[in-house]
Amino acid sequence: MQQMATGQTREMDWKSAVAHFQKSSRWRAGWQSINTLVPYAALWALMYWSISVSWWLTIPLAILAGGFLIRVFIIFHDCGHGSFFPSQRANNVLGFLTGVLTWSPYSQWRAEHAAHHATSGDLDRRGVGDIWTLTVEEYLALPRRKRLAYRLARQPALLFLFAPLFTFFIKHRFVRAGASERERRSVFWTNVAVLAMAVGLSCVFGLKAFCIIQLVILAVAGGVGFWLFYVQHQFEGVYWERRQDWDFTTAALQGSSFYKLPKVLQWFSGNIGFHHVHHLSSRIPNYNLERCHQAHPLFSSVKAVTLLASFKSFTFRLWDEQRRELVGFGHLKTLRRTGQGAGPV
Prior knowledge:
Layout: H1 2-18, H2 26-51, H3 55-80, H4 88-101, H5 106-119, E1 134-135, H6 136-140, H7 144-153, H8 156-169, H9 181-205, H10 207-233, H11 248-255, E2 258-260, H12 263-268, H13 275-280, H14 289-295, E3 304-306, H15 307-310, E4 318-320, E5 325-327, H16 330-337
Parallel strand pairs: 1-4, 2-3
Antiparallel strand pairs: 4-5
Helix pairs in contact: 2-3, 3-4, 3-10, 4-9, 5-9, 8-10, 9-10
């Protein structure tokens, strides 16, 4: 009974801490839309001009446009949570439009992402809207062929280059299993709009030039976006638990990172580094996340992951339930030497 009361007190504590910051602002949302979408459009105009000058000028502009597309995706993301504008209709309209720019079907992505928020850090509910992560025991139980597939899936080149391109160019073009009628319509109309955008820009830039530019932009935005998502849930000290012991508040504060980025990177990533706050309340728009983090002592105990420290996440591959920590594949050799693992690693 005392433990239940403590849990209720803790929940009331964080709900009161975030309540003020859940209020969306038309002014802040409008200004962020302008300072993101206008420069993104301007960069496309500059790239059109630069093609006649030199591709050595076009490619850097495309890379910068990729940075702005990350920020576009954060707007898309907030619209999906219904937090960007006070009006749900405005969120849905802008969400669809930014979804076309990011090649992402708004309603389908929103449903998958909601599942991620509801299950993040739960070992028994993995597989929707997250990065494929196995426990040591699950990996050791796999046949050799599937172990190889998992190792390939966790390789940085595949995870942060090919996987994003596959996701945005191919996976998002199809309806997921069990999708609702709204999700099906979202995929269909997004595909129509993406095709129209691609045909229109190909007529302006030329097919080859458009394909190269769009590929560079999505490679940059997708690669960085996947990295951000990866670090947000794959870091030293992260929380994972079986469903019967899983706790929403702990999963938010300990299972989602406080990724402390330099200010310029924080701006391009739309404050998403304050991911612990976001998972505690997805109703907080990105432009309020930092202020919420700074306003309450509840968040002062959350350990920051710095840009330099985050590179250690490259080494994490599996969750060790016995040690309650993420480990690399090298850990399997230790288990084999001590007789705790079997077969090839």
